[in-house]
Amino acid sequence: MTSETVRTSKRENLRKGVYLLPNLITSGSLFAGFYVIIASTNENFTRAAWFILLSAILDGLDGKVARLTGTSSKFGMELDSLADVVAFGVAPGVLMYTWALKPFGKLGWLAAFLYVVCGALRLARFNVQVETVESKRFIGLPIPAAASIVATCVLLFYELGGTGTIKKVSVVVLVVLLAFLMVSNIRYFSLKDPELFKRQPFMMLVVAILLLIVIVAQPEIMLFVIGMTYMASGPVGFLLGRRGKKVAHDAADSAG
Questions:
Q1: Confidence check: pLDDT of 202 > 80
Q2: CA distances in angstroms from 212 to 49, 159, 208, 247, listed in the order given
Q3: Are 26 and 128 in contact (CB under 8 A)?
Q4: Residue 40 to residue 42: CA distance in whole angstroms
Q5: The whole model's pTM is what?
Q6: More confident: 132 or 172
C-alpha cells in the first residue's frame, strides 16, 4: 500500500465521522487541564489541584470507554495524547511555577519547563512503544501520575494549614525528580493491566473498600501518600531487581 493510498484512506475515515463519547471525555480532560492554568494564574491553587485530579480521572475513563464500546480510533489516540500534554504537562508546570517556583527566578521557570518537556518526551516515547511494551508495566513514571503528585503536594500544603504561596527548595527537587522519572527506564506498575478487571480474591475487595474509606476520610493526606508511594515503587523495584540479579549472578559464579 502506497503512502498516497494510506492518506486517502485516512481522509475517508474522517469523512465518515469520529466517535463521540470517548472524544467528549478526552475533551473534558483537556478542558480541566486548561482550567488549571486559568485557576493557577488567578492564584486559586487548591481548585487548580483538584482539577488536575479530575483530568486524571477523565483520562483514565476515555480509553476504557473506547475499548468497552469498541470505539477506539487513531483520531482518539492522537487527541488523547495532545490533551495529556496540556492537562498533565503544561498545566501542572504552570501550577508549580505560580505556586512555588516563581520566587526562584530563572531556576524556577527552568525547573517548570524541564517538567513540561520531559512530560512531552514521555508521551512521545509511549506513543512509539505502545505496540511493543507489556501492558502490565510502564517504562518511566506515567505523566498523569506525575501531575497527580504535583496536585496532591499542593493539596497537602493547604490541608496542613499553609497559606498563600510557598518557597521551598524541596519543591524544586520534587519537580526535577518527577521530570527525571518520567524519561527514565524505570518500570512502573500499570493500572491499565487487563488482569485487574478479572476475578480477584475476596480479600482484595475488602482491602479496596477499606482503602476507599481511608481516602474519603482524609483525601488530601491519603492521596499524597498514595502518590508518593507509587512514585517510590519504581526506584525501589528497580534496586531490588538489580540486587536479585546480582545475587543470582554471584550464585552462578560460585556454582561454576
A1: no
A2: 20, 19, 6, 38
A3: no
A4: 5
A5: 0.83
A6: 172
Q: Could you tell me the end-to-end alpha-carbon distance of the chain, in angstroms, rounded to an integer? A: 54
Residue 86 is classified by DSSP as I
The grid coordinates listed for 14 are 474522517
Give the E-state strand segments of the chain in sequence order: 137-139, 187-189
| 18, 72, 119, 152, 181 from 123: Cα distances, Å | 23, 18, 6, 22, 13
How would you class 116 by CB atoms within 10 Å of its CB: exposed for 0-12, middle for 13-18, buried for 19 or more?
buried
Place of cell 545475587: 247
Q: Alpha-carbon distance 138 to 190, whole Å?
A: 6
Q: What's the rounded Cα separation, in Å, for the pair 100 and 91?
A: 14
pLDDT of residue 186: 92
Is 115 or 64 the better-scoring residue by pLDDT? Answer: 115
What homologous superfamily is domain 11-192+200-255 in, according to CATH?
Answer: CDP-alcohol phosphotransferase transmembrane (TM) domain (1.20.120.1760)
Q: What is the mean pLDDT of the chain?
A: 84
- Residue ranges covered by each domain of the chain: 11-192+200-255
Alpha carbon 225 to chain centroid distance?
16
* pLDDT value of position 83: 94
Side-chain-facing half-sphere of 228: CA atoms under 13 Å: 10
